[in-house]
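The material for today's practical consists of a large collection of protein records. Read left to right, the backbone structure tokens trace the chain's path through space. An example says more than a description, so a record of this kind follows:
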Amino acid sequence: MRPCGLRPRFFSRFPRDYTVKKALTNLAVLCVTVLGMCILSEGILRSFVHRLPLEYQAYLQSPLKVLAQGSKVGPLPRDYVLVLGDSYAQGAGDWMLSADKWKNPSFNTQSVLHEITGGDFLSFGQGGAGSLDSLAVLPEVYRRFFTSTPMYKLDPPKKIIAFFYEGNDLADNIRSIDSWYRPQYDESRMGESDYFSGFVEDRVRSSAKFRWWNRWLFTEFIFNLTQKILGKVKTGGQPDRSSPNDHIEIRLNGQIHVIRHQMDAVIADLPATRVREALSLFQSSLRDLMTRNPQVEVTVVYIPAALSIYDVVSEKVSVFTIKSRGAVLDFRNVRAASDNVRRSVREIVLSEKADFIDPTEELRTVASVEMIHGPRDWLHFNEKGYRTISRILASRI
């Protein structure tokens, strides 16, 4: 037993009247102070998250990162339109690359639509997402996240705009089938709503795994900032997709211009059976989206690839394909494949009782006199392209 009057060695460093009770009291005060500071910081960040500069948005991750979009009046959208799709729904392209990173400026479709209409717009767009992820999985993952996060309850949208990008959605859909669907599910039953819904549910459960700090803006911001300081978060620049062999001639305002860069196009060398599979996945994903949102009007917007828009003079063009990057194809086949896919997507959308917007001809009119892609990123719209597509949508939604 310890002799009466002697204190543990730890407390010998403190005044003699310092007791365990006082230590616990001070610890409690410290914990309450830290908690109070976190709550205060969360409240401050929440109040101006929609004005957060792009430089700091890098320290937020989805789903909470979507609240930083400046295409709405406040932190949480009200009576809003939801935009779904791939990198086109994010706003990838030269406009984003040249945006002031110390501000939260316009650089995508939803922000321009917000400028034009004054309404709230929110995008769940994700680069590289095919129809499965963009239409079925991600919207449900985000819905469950915001439903279970106390401070960030998100109301259902009043309308959904879903992008179908001609350039790579078919290829992305084929990868989804080969990677996720075919190994465990019956391909012949993809068109059965209940069966496909079970597949989507499995994908949602495997994707909807969030830690406690992912549910608070401040904690996620601090966590990712710490990761960045420790060098665990790496950022890369825009990859160079040009080569000396790339040579595409287009007619612009009566003059011939040479583009030394690969451009996106619908996959003209894809077997017909694979095209049907990819379109089937699109249809099933669209149906699943509409089933989960029965009271919401859905509009599918067809985004043509660059080579489907410009007046191309070259007989051969350098494009991305599912087999290789920079493949050289006959342009006549590329344009014919584009027309076929566009017609098929329209038929699918109308058969599912959704609205369909095809801005191809209007985009071609603008692209006959000026570039709506590039000059750095020839796979996505530049500012003129995004403003043009936004003006078209604003007049029809």
